[in-house]
């Protein structure tokens, strides 16, 4: 780290140009290749996945995405000549638009009831005659759709509205026009972070440095994620998730280094020495923290789901580039900025009064002392608060939201509601039964299956069967009586698989599998839930192993694991209340209440365990340093809390502002991440790290640092912050280090000793332990 920091400081212009070249190169590559995001929830080996593959091979024309144009009238009927003429003319106009493959009108075969609860053209006109829909097929897959072409389809269809007729459009293709843009969320997050940084630093130059490094690294990563999506499955929310995480950790990592650099300047170091020391020490902590985040994110690879593999690699790429920018680009910028990293008042005070060390004062010291005096009471209050917030997690319902959860003002939500009102809630998520036939006996059994299905509780409509040209594959469409998100629909899928279909297959070689979007979502959720304990165990185990090596203690890793679990549980409680129960979701523009995405727990655990480790390392490493120096647990906890709480709180406020801004992204999934991460960071920083953790450490005393002797001898030694960068020698520092050669002094402690030398030059390391008034 020392060699890297020295090289970056010496060749700062070259470093800046290299980063700009990397950013421009990534953006250029993205512009040339484009992106190909895909929300493919298919889990290999599941029943719905097998059904989808069979359907795609037997019916190639059904492999694309179908959208709908829905119209409704409150007066009269959609069969009225005026309505029919207007909509027929509109559908012909839509069919001629670029990008549209075909349009199937309900008026083309309106010969009365189809016998399955609808009327005409496969039931595309409701029984009351007031709602109708046309099936719309685009010529290209959703991920390749041009938003402007799709918008022309929506605009053309909506021109027919008026005079009592409502026209809406729904489906995955139409949703392209409502795709969220991160620009607003990014601007709000960066603006809020800038305000917090300026209040913390009081210097415009120091405020801009973390923002510049974060923007450059996140911009490079976002373009890289787009290119990555051309070669593997990457979810469409991955770039925005990467931006959310990257801005949060990137600004925070730069904050830690800039804070240490400014501390060195105030202590009288030169710009070069202060930057060198900041990167050599805090830079190591940043690399350690970034590594833990990446390890937690890459833990998703053990689930062996292509959908999550892309998310893990995309988010990890953003974190890696954020760390790289913090330890290379940032020191180069610090060298360019010079003394302007300090505010004018600080520079004037440094000139007039000379260097002085930073010492915790004010509220931080009073709070640390208050926690020391009341550890039992404060610990109980914090634990109770976390338990109350975590209670809603017990009612967590995992499922996949659809356009019924979109904001009420969107056309996709209105189309969803019109279909549900006119044709039943299950019409928005029909089940597809795919049969594999071998001979006349199987065909006869499959022909008789619809009668058994109509008698099954929970089934609203049945259509089919249909067969492919060779007669080896048959399809039956089942419309549930409940919405796709309903637990009753999931129960119907289980009933069909466990009872109805086995009975129909008896005495034949027929194999029928339940597919469709709803069944696919249920299978995807089951796979994740089944592997979740293994995933959480791996992430917790790796995190505890790292902390064990860093702090040589059994208690510290165990407390960290418990705190991380508490933060995740409480954050999920907030998410359940807002998104599943609908508390304030419509007011915030987040749409209606619905289930929690099945992949959210996995990604949340990964991100939160990584981010929580940052604060744990920053807080406990200072306590550990003081413990090694004095052997006094109470003093170690008090000093560690008082000296780190301000930076932890500043970093937390920045992360909360960045994460909270993404609530306005317009995307339900990203809003879930924004609220969950903002809530988790707030609770982690203001309740766990500054209240519950120090309270528990006061109560446990010296047991915090206990490690069996046999394990101590076998563990390798790693240092999070390492030795300080070389600087001008000072007598007190030499004295302290010579008396305690096994102690690695951080720059913060070194500067405290330097400050002591000004007022008490004869103080030794032993005397420093005894005289707390110098703290």
Automatic annotation (TrEMBL):
Residues 188-336 form the SSD domain. The keyword Endoplasmic reticulum does not apply. The chain crosses the membrane at residues 184-201, 208-231, 237-258, 285-307, 313-339, 377-398, 532-551, 563-583, 603-624, 645-664. It is found in: Cell membrane. Residues 99-127 are annotated as: Disordered. Residues 1-31 form the signal peptide. Keywords: Cell membrane, Membrane, Signal, Transmembrane, Transmembrane helix. Residues 114-123 have a biased composition (Gly residues). It is a multi-pass membrane protein. Pfam families: MMPL. Its main location: membrane. Belongs to the resistance-nodulation-cell division (RND) (TC 2.A.6) family. MmpL subfamily. This is MMPL family transporter. It comes from Streptomyces axinellae.
